[in-house]
Write a structure and sequence with these properties.
Radius of gyration: 24 Å
Number of strands: 16
Distance between the termini: 47 Å
CATH class of the largest domain: Alpha Beta
Order of helices and strands: EEEEEEEHEEEHEHHHHEHHEEEEH
Number of domains: 3
CATH topology of the largest domain: Zincin-like
Structural class: alpha+beta
Strand content: 15-25%
Strand order of the largest sheet: 6-7-8-10-9
CATH architecture of the largest domain: 2-Layer Sandwich
Largest sheet: 5 strands, mixed
Bound molecules: zinc ion
């Protein structure tokens, strides 16, 4: 957009758009832009035109247009308010045969997001477009772009593995609907707000569909991709001194950002999390916010956990990750005493918190019922290093 017209190119500055695309119909038979189609016609010189109106104010980075020889396959989604939205997968004629899986997923992820308290998609049309050579995928408002293998199967044949990036990208881009599009980031340094929450939503959707084992792939990605990046790049999730957004598109922003939000959810519990999420969207809908605006909503929803929330939120600004050692101190008469100790060398002033879930399994792999978990030593922070378990 900034190459087309003068504009205030910031994620917090929103405008409504009315766009008319004019082109040679033999070269560009299909013209698409954000929003709803409100007019079309042919000029005296033979060129055709299509007008689009996007009444939802959006920042420049969510503007998109595409023109070419394109075909589409469609389905519909009915929102929880009873509004019908047309969904289209758009691609070149030779690719469009692989649209079925994405079309199956789109209404599913939309319904799932609405059930989490998300605002339903706000236009009558939502298009996912396959663009050969496009880097990954982007959540442009109502007209999202995807590298073809992240949206379409190969109609000549595919395996389950080929569906993994489609599942990940279709859910990720749609989940930006509220996590980034309805609520944008106050500035690019707050990128983790939209990407961390969206990656977390994407993984929740995967676990809902495939069970708790859906988390395994995320942990693999975190260890394989984010851990080494954090060592070599040495940057925290929030880099307040960085002004070039390109430097912020890292695995740390996405994966570790999601993991910190997930820890915060472990601290407050799912009920308070949902309450905070809904309150956050209501407060900032069609506006912009930062990571700590969300943290503040959590503090409001779970005031008794404020210290723990702040303790976990410090991870947003800290480079590195915790190492926790668990050792058995005694085990007799059905009472197991263990100590959990931080063994990393991260700074602890003020202390950072780590929520820890505990479960026990017998040698046969069966879960052992735990009658009571005491945490006196931890609660009183009897260790020299500040260890906190919740
Ligand atoms: Zn994203």
């Amino acid at each position: 957009m900034r190459r087309i017209v003068y504009c205030l190119d910031r994620p917090s500055v929103r405008s409504t758009y009315r766009v008319t695309l004019v082109a040679d119909p033999t070269q560009y038979p299909v013209l698409l832009c954000n929003g709803d189609r409100v007019g079309e016609g042919t000029l005296d010189d033979g060129r055709h035109w299509v007008s689009f109106s996007d009444p939802i104010p959006k920042p420049t980075y969510l503007f998109a247009l595409v023109a070419g020889t394109l075909e589409f396959r469609s389905t519909t989604h009915t929102t929880n308010e009873g509004r019908r939205i047309n969904l289209e997968v758009v691609a070149a004629p030779e690719l469009i045969g692989g649209a079925a899986y994405a079309l199956e997923l789109m209404p599913e992820v939309m319904a799932w997001d609405e059930a989490q308290g998300g605002v339903p998609h706000d236009l009558d049309m939502l298009r996912f477009v396959a663009i050969p050579g496009y880097p990954d995928a982007t959540e442009y408002h109502g007209l999202m772009f995807f590298e073809p293998t992240t949206l379409l199967t190969d109609s000549a044949g595919y395996t389950d593995d080929d569906l993994v990036p489609i599942f990940a990208n279709v859910s990720h881009e749609y989940l930006h609907q509220v996590r980034g599009n309805r609520v944008t980031v106050a500035d690019w340094q707050q990128l983790a707000l939209k990407e961390g929450l969206t990656v977390l939503g994407q993984h929740d959707f995967r676990e809902q569909r495939y069970g708790a084992s859906g988390r395994i792939q995320f942990v693999i990605d975190l260890r394989r991709l984010q851990f080494p990046e954090e060592i070599t790049v040495g940057a925290a999730v929030l880099q307040l001194g960085v002004t070039d957004p390109a430097q912020l598109y890292t695995r740390t922003t996405y994966f570790k950002g999601a993991e910190i939000f997930r820890m915060l959810r472990s601290v407050v519990g799912s009920t308070a999390w949902r309450q905070a999420f809904v309150a956050f969207i209501e407060r900032f809908d069609l506006g912009s916010a930062g990571v700590f605006d969300f943290v503040n909503e959590l503090r409001t929803a779970a005031p008794l956990q404020a210290e723990a929330i702040d303790g976990v939120a410090r991870w947003f600004s800290l480079v590195g990750r915790p190492v926790v050692a668990a050792t058995t101190e005694s085990h007799a008469e059905g009472v197991l005493t263990m100590s959990l100790t931080r063994t990393d060398s991260l700074g602890d002033d003020p202390p950072v918190f780590i929520p820890i879930d505990v479960a026990f399994f017998g040698a046969d792999g069966a879960a052992i019922e735990v009658v009571e978990v005491g945490s006196a030593g931890l609660a009183h922070r009897s260790h020299d290093r500040a260890v906190s378990a919740l």
